[in-house]
Structure formats: structure tokens, C-alpha cells
């Protein structure tokens, strides 16, 4: 039974009071995103900036257009995002090979250092968020979520909240 | 190893490509919330309206202030939210007992019918979202998420995305 199955309250029905999997996912997910945003702000980064740095780190040297498409970010917003990271010396645009008309994106040395700091923040975040679970249970949770993500055809490593707004 | 542990890409590392539990939670959670919002819009409801109807259904007859506090909604926004539901005949304000200065909120007959329609939408949403999992795995996922929610001190049945904005 899910929370929405009944209008009559029943005390002590923990499934009712906490809701179904989809409600809990939305609730815990929003909490996870908000806490990550707070933590990453300590590095003077916005979540979309961290998301792009991560994507360049994992798959470097693609064209700006390729990253923008993957993130689902409109071109003009994407340029603003890259400009900010370039101005801070974290990312550089290089003429692409084989197509020299396109700029490929790479992390600078400072960008790689920043990724390591993001990594430390990410680990602290993961540990704090999953404190209630042991290692086996965390792996179980990751597996269940990854299967939902795959079946729902979500893009690996990209989530809507990381898309730059305005 | 989490996605943020390494800057060097490794093809075929599914944990890297999908990210840690916290990233997946944020990603799948945002997807769940967005899909629910779309589905519930078919009933001409906004997610915060559905959230309040549900809260009144589960715990009816509290004062407006009590619901507002639980939802974390500022009083003025809360009044607007209730006004909208009252205008549609889904909710009614009644003089409270024992304190007749306070208005208590109740679902009308139409409000209870709407809750049943929300229930049907919620079940369809849950089934579509969790299509990749069998019943045992869904229960497992609910249990893991509920433990995180409890340890993180989230309020049962309330999530930030359901709070009315503006």
C-alpha cells in the first residue's frame, strides 16, 4: 500500500507515513541535491560548473557542442558556463582535431586540482548522506537506482538539477 | 570508487559512469519529481496542492498554522494555496475545537474524490518509475530510502519540491 492509497489515517503504518518509493526518491533526491549544492559552494562553484568539470574530466577533448548536447544545455547558456570556468583558469578551449573549426575543451592543471577537491567534497557528501547504511546496503542502493536510471533512459552522469539556468 | 574519485576515464566502469548513490539519488529523484508534476497536472493540480491535500487527508482537522509549519511554507503563501483549493471546493475551513479562533482544514467530499484520483495517478507513477524492479526490490528500495530519510531528519511525507513557490 502506498500513501496515496488511503484517505483514512492509520497510526504506525510506516510505509504510509514515509510514502512509496517514488515519493521517497523525490524527497531524498531533493535533499541530496540541496546538500551537494551547499557543499560545492564552499569551493566557490555552482553545481552546473562542477557537473561540467566532471564531464570534461571523464571524457576530455570533445567539442563544446558535444558537451552542451549531452548536458541538455542551450548553446548560449553553455558558452556562459564555459566562459566562467575559463576565466578562472580551470578549463581551456583548444582548436580541435581533426576539425579545426571546432574548439575542444580540456581541464587545465588547476582544473584537475579542482576536480580532486570536488572529489573530496563528493566523498564527504556521500558518506554523510548514506550514514544510515553500511557498505553492502550502499552498493545495493546504487544498483537499484542505476537500474531505474537505465530503464528510464536517463543520461549517465547528468541530472536536470545540474543544468545551468538563465 | 565513486565518479569523483578519478579524473582519468575508464571505459566500462559502470559505477563511475553512473556515479555514487548520492548523485544517482539526486538524478533519479529530480526525474521522479518532474514526472509526478507532469502526471498530476493532468488533474489540473500543482504538486504543492497535491501535497497539501494529501497531508490534510492523512491528518485532517489541524489548524492552518499547523499544516503550514509542517510543510515549511510561509503563512502568506500557505493562505494562497488553501484559497485555491477552497475555491475549487476541495477543502473547507471550519472553526476549530477547542480553540474557535483557529480555522481547521478538512477535505470536502469532492476533496476526497480528488484524493482517490491522485491515488490512481500516484500508483501509475510508482509503477512506471519502478518498472525495472520487482516487488521485493521495490520494498528494499523503500526501506533503504526511508532509513536515509530518517537519519537525515527529513519530515515524513514532505519534500522541498512540494513547497509552494512565490
UniProtKB/TrEMBL annotation, chains A, B:
Q: What biological process terms from GO does the record include?
A: response to stress
MF terms from GO for this chain are: DNA-binding transcription factor activity
- SUPFAM superfamilies to which the protein is assigned, alphabetical: Winged helix' DNA-binding domain
**What superkingdom does the record give?**
Bacteria
Q: Which Pfam families match?
A: MarR_2
Domain HTH marR-type, by residue range, is: 18-150
The membrane spanning regions, by residue number, are: none
Classification via InterPro entries: HTH_MarR-typ, MarR/SlyA-like, WH-like_DNA-bd_sf, WH_DNA-bd_sf
- PANTHER family xrefs: MARR FAMILY REGULATORY PROTEIN, TRANSCRIPTIONAL REGULATOR, MARR FAMILY
Instruction: Report the protein name in the record.
Output: HTH marR-type domain-containing protein
**Taxonomic path:** Bacteria, Bacillati, Actinomycetota, Actinomycetes, Micromonosporales
Amino acid at each position: 500500500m502506498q500513501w496515496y492509497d488511503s484517505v483514512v489515517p492509520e497510526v504506525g503504518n510506516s510505509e504510509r507515513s514515509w510514502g512509496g518509493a517514488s515519493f521517497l526518491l523525490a524527497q531524498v533526491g531533493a535533499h541530496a541535491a540541496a546538500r551537494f549544492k551547499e557543499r560545492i559552494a564552499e569551493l566557490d562553484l555552482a553545481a552546473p560548473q562542477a557537473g561540467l568539470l566532471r564531464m570534461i574530466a571523464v571524457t576530455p577533448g570533445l567539442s563544446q557542442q558535444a558537451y552542451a548536447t549531452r548536458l541538455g544545455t542551450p548553446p548560449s547558456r553553455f558558452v556562459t558556463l564555459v566562459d566562467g570556468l575559463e576565466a578562472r583558469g580551470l578549463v581551456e578551449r583548444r582548436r580541435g582535431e581533426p576539425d579545426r573549426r571546432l574548439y575542444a575543451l580540456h581541464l587545465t592543471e588547476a582544473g584537475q586540482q579542482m576536480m580532486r577537491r570536488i572529489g573530496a567534497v563528493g566523498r564527504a557528501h556521500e558518506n554523510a548522506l548514506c550514514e544510515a547504511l553500511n557498505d553492502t546496503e550502499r552498493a545495493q542502493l546504487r544498483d537499484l537506482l542505476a537500474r531505474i536510471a537505465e530503464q528510464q533512459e536517463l543520461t549517465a552522469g547528468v541530472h536536470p538539477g545540474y543544468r545551468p539556468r538563465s
